[in-house]
Amino acid sequence: MLAIEKKRLNELLRRMNRDFQVYVPYLENGTGKFAPYQEERELYLEMNTLLPPKDIFFPQTEKMYKFRAAGNELEIEEIAEQKEKQVVFGIRSCDAFSIDCLDKVFLSRGYEDAFYKNKRENTLLVGLACTAVGDTCFCQSMGLNPQEAVGVDLQVLDLGAEWGFKARTAAGQELLAKYGDVLHETGASPLPAEEFKLKVEVEGVPEKLSRMFDHPVWEEVSRKCLGCALCTYLCPTCHCFDVSGKVKGEEGYRFRCWDSCMFSEYTRMAGGHNPRPTKKERVRNRFMHKLSYFVERYGQLLCTGCGRCLAKCPVNMDITAVIRKIKEAEVE
Amino acid sequence: MKEITQKMRDTARELLSSGQVALVLGWEKGYPWYKSAPTFIDKVEDVERLVFDEFCHNNLSKYLLDLAAVDGKVALFVKGCDSRGVNRLIQDNQVKREQLYIIGIPCPGLKDPDDAAGKNWGDEINGAVKCQDCRFPNPVVYDLLLGEKVPAVERGRETRELIERLEKMKPDERYEFWAGQFNRCIRCYACRNICPACNCRECVFDRAVPEWLGKANNLVENQFMQLTRAIHVAGRCIECGECERACPVNIPLMALNRKIINDIEELFGEEPAGLDPEKKTPLGRFELDDPEKFM
Asked: Which of B199, B217, B247 to mutate to test binding with chain A, by most A CBs within 10 Å of its CB?
């Protein structure tokens, strides 16, 4: 396997950053996030980032087009698509699978989202195997391997003193060839991942949920929820957005921005009717979407077990506890 | 704390089985071990879930806003800060005192769950920032007090030092500091939704027509949201620190709230919010001799 000494990783990233826009995990004010590579900054590779990398492909706020309307004249200008080649370095298995979920949403079933597609197609993913497992991590229970990410071009493995690289795609192979001169052949073997502290059995849950729309469990589960959007905004797979615009005089632009099914105005219609009037319906929708509707539509769960929602929810809403409750629930 | 837990369960059992209350709001053990979560007990057999430990951060008074439809009295456990939240909600006519059975717990100061992440039970864990400058660890209103009253202890100075540092800055530097903080805001509204002072029927930020606050995440909108919030809760913030604890990106919101509290106390006299439900809030009343230093 090709490898680089850990202390020399910067040399590789520096080289890579000349050819691509490289995103790496950093710690900023105690918050882990992916940000453009800067030579002098210390990488954060100990644990997963708090903020998922989804905003690299699906920014929280994204301009879509500009317009100018004067009298009967209307001009529309598409906002330039990003063409720059980029590399996301250090993506964990949970987050790599979340990008697979987003690909299904934005690129499959007959409609391709041009904004997402452009960034996605120009991006190479470099996975980073987990050895330390966080208290709230449960990707294994969701069928993922913390050391082998789905859909990455390269997988980085922790060999102790070195980082090892395994190519997973032709593009990954090319990357290794391109930077071969800073890599060396090694016989060291990867460190294993720790035992998961959090486990949950999800088998049968999607099918069971399809018969639980009116189950009293939702009343119980939603009671402590505050209805903030923290879980959905930290979630690597949540992808709802709203489209709004800004107009000043004759000119304006349209943009889209993250939205959340947890907000009361999310499904509020013109005239004021809201089919999800209380947090019970909103919480139900969130779990149904993750664990049932998405499975029905795309054949996979919309939860990757990253554990961010559980780690940060101010009232300890715990999706694994909800799954256990669903398992235990009696259904007619 | 085991003793308090036992007393909580005994009290809840008695209140529910005698029919004095229909619902008990308390805390139960969550996951991981350094999280305790709000819980709703309406059956005697569930009282064993109740706990009190150093991770019972949640201010349960917030849930009183959801409980208008509960048929009967509601019992809730309160620490010092939470009890001020209850008084504030009574003051705002959100709940009636006679609907409540308040069980006070003198608070020894809580621990920081973020510092506990990755550690084991029994390890040394830092105190919660929100408890550092607590002035009222003992409940200020209750029907029953569990345990002995505790003295107010200064446990740290992080927030006060930040305020002192900010006060010494030039306006431009101060602007830069807060701009850096609010730039990070992801507008998840956890700070608003966990706050007992945020009890408007419809929040200005949720208003679509007219749209006071745009949905775009940028510094201008984030600042507008955060400063509006800080000014809106001015004189009503009960210093529970839940906004800052809930913030996933570590914005030091209590430095802002606490600075405003300091200013109000300096301008209008010593009267922290939520001590006396009969007295109008400093910014909610008018007196002819009010100072006008800011004019």
From this structure: B217
**Which chain B positions have a beta carbon within 8 Å of A50's beta carbon?**
248-249
Does residue A14 carry a pLDDT above 90? yes
Q: pLDDT, tens digit, for every residue of B61-83?
A: 999 999 887 899 999 999 999 99
Predicted local confidence at residue A83, as pLDDT: 73
* Closest Cα in chain A to B196: A226
Q: Band of the pLDDT at A117, cuts 50, 70, 90? A: very high
What pTM was estimated for this model as a whole?
Answer: 0.95
Backbone phi, psi, residue A166, to 5°: -120, 125
Question: How is residue A237 written in tokens?
Answer: 């797979």
Which pLDDT belongs to residue B273? Answer: 94
Burial A108-145 (b: 16+ CB within 10 A, else e): eeeeebebbeebbebbbbbbbbbbebbbbbbbbbbebe
Instruction: Pick the closest to residue A146 from A195, A200, A87 (CA basis).
Output: A195
ipTM value for the complex: 0.95
Q: Is A102 helix (H, G, I), strand (E, B) or coil?
A: helix
Q: Contact, B59 vs B249, CB < 8 A?
A: no
| Cβ-defined contact of B38 to A227 (cutoff 8 Å) | no
Cβ-nearest to A233 among B30, B186, B211: B186
The Cα B115–Cα A286 span in angstroms is 29
